[in-house]
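Open question from group meeting: does this chain pack into something compact, or does most of it stay loose? Before anyone orders reagents, we agreed to write out a predicted structure and look at it together. Recording both the input and the output here so the notebook holds the full record.
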Amino acid sequence: MDSLTHIALGACIGELFTDKQFGKKAMFWGALAQSIPDIDFISVIWLDPTAELIAHRGFTHSLIFGLLMTFFLSVTAERFHRPHNISLKKWIWFLGIEIAVHLFIDGFNNYGVGWLEPFSNKRYSFQVLFVADPFFSIPSGMACLYLLFRSSNHVKRMLWAKMGISITMLYLLYATINKQIIEKDVKKITAKQHISFDQMLTTPSPLNSWLHFVVLKKDSAFYVGYHSVFDQDDSLVLNTYLQHDEWLHEIRDHKEVQDLIQFSQGYYTIEKKRDTLIFNDLRFGQIIGWYDPKQLFAFHYYLNHPEDNHLVVQRGRFLNWNKQAFNELIYRIAGF
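Structure tokens returned:
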């Protein structure tokens, strides 16, 4: 998830773990612990773009790192705030849960999390939430702001903290149910249309959990489209993209290509534009694909021009957005 969501959720959890006498310091430690796995962002300073893709949400999002940082932060907090009546055991529970929540909810995005690093480079991803979903983030954000501007002795602080956490978690459950509905619908529709596939991936379109980008893989071809939980008919419009893996023949052993293939988990296509080979990671959807299905994929990497690959994941998320594209997103979510 985005950093602000982690900070807000961490602050709300911090409010629950300590008494009023500790004040807002618990919110600070909660926000810090929730943010610490994202320390891997500094790797962009010395790593090339593809290596940074692998490093992000890798070891710093592993269970091993979580345990190490829980112990380190707990000992630091316990010593820094002496004298106090909070046991080291309580600090460990408090900060350990904070870090565990971060690692857990990041697994619901499509980027993938290396929970078992460094023993396995497998990435885990449930692909339930878009990385920035206001319906997931706003409840904890509002609760965090309330807690910041209310006195430490205010009678409703605990209530607001509980509401911020519970509504956020309920939305996560609701988004998971939406994904199950969409995947069930897609299987039903493709069976009716006699469309066979070997693998299926569904991931939310921007800012919501109702409209999903659908990817079906069959041999070396991908069929992509969109489906909403509110769609009423049994039709699914799919566009075909060939993987064109053979175009990597001469450069397959290059490190950047190996990194990209590993990162994409097999959901990639190669396309040519003039003298340039472009690597597309299909898991991140298309740029305004619900409005213009011929648009570029949001994640596209120029294999011939690595100097043009800064912010490779972020650059396509909201490119070409305008009022019409946003309105079309709303209509498509509604099933029109």
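Observations to bring back to the group:
The chain has a mean pLDDT of 92.
Residues 148 and 294 are 46 Å apart (CA to CA).
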